[in-house]
Automatic annotation (TrEMBL), chains A, B:
Pathway: Cofactor biosynthesis; adenosylcobalamin biosynthesis. Keywords: Cobalamin biosynthesis, Methyltransferase, S-adenosyl-L-methionine, Transferase. PANTHER family: COBALT-PRECORRIN-2 C(20)-METHYLTRANSFERASE (PTHR43467). Belongs to the precorrin methyltransferase family. It comes from Aliiroseovarius pelagivivens. This is Precorrin-2 C(20)-methyltransferase.
Length: 233, 233
């Protein structure tokens, strides 16, 4: 009988923000797979490191950070092939995913390649958006407010129109897009309502009003913008 | 010295989808507070029940389910006063919150009443939106897709325009608004792309294509709509 593919959300980075289910499945896993930088670390593996058994086999999937999509797709092809081999041999495979597997998670590339042939179980994780709200001590959405989640790479025109039409906004993957995003929010007169957070829940976390954000932001940074249109109190 | 107020996200319902941090704090808590139906159960307490110490003091906050806001606000006033008394006496107080405390969570009403006087620590939880995507086996957002979260009580015109302009949509708090939401999605020709999920992660979970959804939906139900505009594969 084939094994099951587990897509495990690890949460935002603090290992204690993993779920009990994630911790149980990782600790019991014989085969653990995870994405990694081509010549470097795996953030996902670092979150789960203390739980991975010394006897577990590890499948490292080095994902090239290129704008072209073909190299990354080829990396997922190769990773999926290795995982498929173990699943076909009857082993369960646990895939480690930062945050949540289906919320901008690279797990979906493996899921797309394997879910037609193998049973899959997706374990949701704590996402960065509520972690950032918690750390900034800013409620994200109340009552009948709407939430819009935008990726930072969107172009300026798109960003502006999406922010204008929204109530609560979380802008993900800020990184090198910070100057563009900041200028859109400034132009809209919303800077005073925006909070900048990087590496939420990790020891090196930074939480600042957007007006005091640094010039350079890492990939794992976010901007929260709550217009407070629903007077929920 | 005053105690600390902990707002603890419990996740969507399966006790195993609680975080390790939530479980640790609840098990150690001397004072546990939670919202409850006026003459009934507390869903939040039921998720955490196995972890609450027999010696813990419990503060039950009965929240009236009325359209008028004054009765609920009065209930939170009374609950906050009881919590403040314990915090002022130096006890930490753990508040149990379904899902995530700052994602449509009633914890924000207590936070607003207490955070100016007491230290607060918010522990994020797994939200229903990624749980629903996991259980429906439908990736929520990939690459540069945008996500829109809408509450079901929005009126038909607002719902329609928000769904038209969006890519991935999660409609929360469906309940008695199901016929209205279904008619908007039908009119837009998007029914084939919509999934209906109730009580995600609980034993009585239901996952169905929207076209097969029941006539009556409970409050804890959601509709996911992924237009798949970003060809991420």
């Amino acid at each position: 009988m084939n094994g099951t593919l587990y897509g495990i959300g690890l949460g935002p980075g603090d290992p204690e923000l993993m779920t009990l289910k994630a911790a149980r499945l990782i600790a019991a896993a014989k085969v653990v797979a995870y994405p990694a930088l081509e010549r470097g670390d795996s953030f996902a593996r670092s979150i789960a490191a203390d739980l991975i058994s010394e006897d577990a086999d590890e499948i490292r999937i080095p994902v090239p950070m290129s704008v072209e999509r073909a190299p990354a797709q080829a990396a997922y092809d190769a990773g999926a092939a290795q995982i498929a081999e173990r699943l076909a041999a009857g082993d369960d495979v646990v895939v480690l995913c930062e945050g949540d597997p289906f919320f901008y998670g690279s797990f979906m590339y493996l899921f797309a390649r394997l879910s037609d042939r193998f049973d899959c179980d997706i374990i949701p994780g704590v996402t960065s958006i509520t972690t950032v709200a918690a750390r900034a001590q800013k409620p994200l959405v109340a009552r009948n407010e709407r939430l819009t989640v935008l990726p930072g790479p969107l172009d300026e025109v798109e960003l502006r129109s999406r922010i204008e039409g929204a109530e609560s906004v979380a802008i993900m993957k800020v990184g090198r897009h910070l100057p563009k995003i900041r200028s859109v929010i400034d132009d809209l007169g919303l800077t005073a309502k925006a909070t900048y957070v990087e590496r939420a829940s990790l020891p090196e976390e930074v939480v600042l009003p957007l007006s005091e954000a640094p010039e350079k932001a890492p990939y794992f940074s976010m901007i929260l913008l709550a217009k407070g249109t629903d007077p929920w109190l």
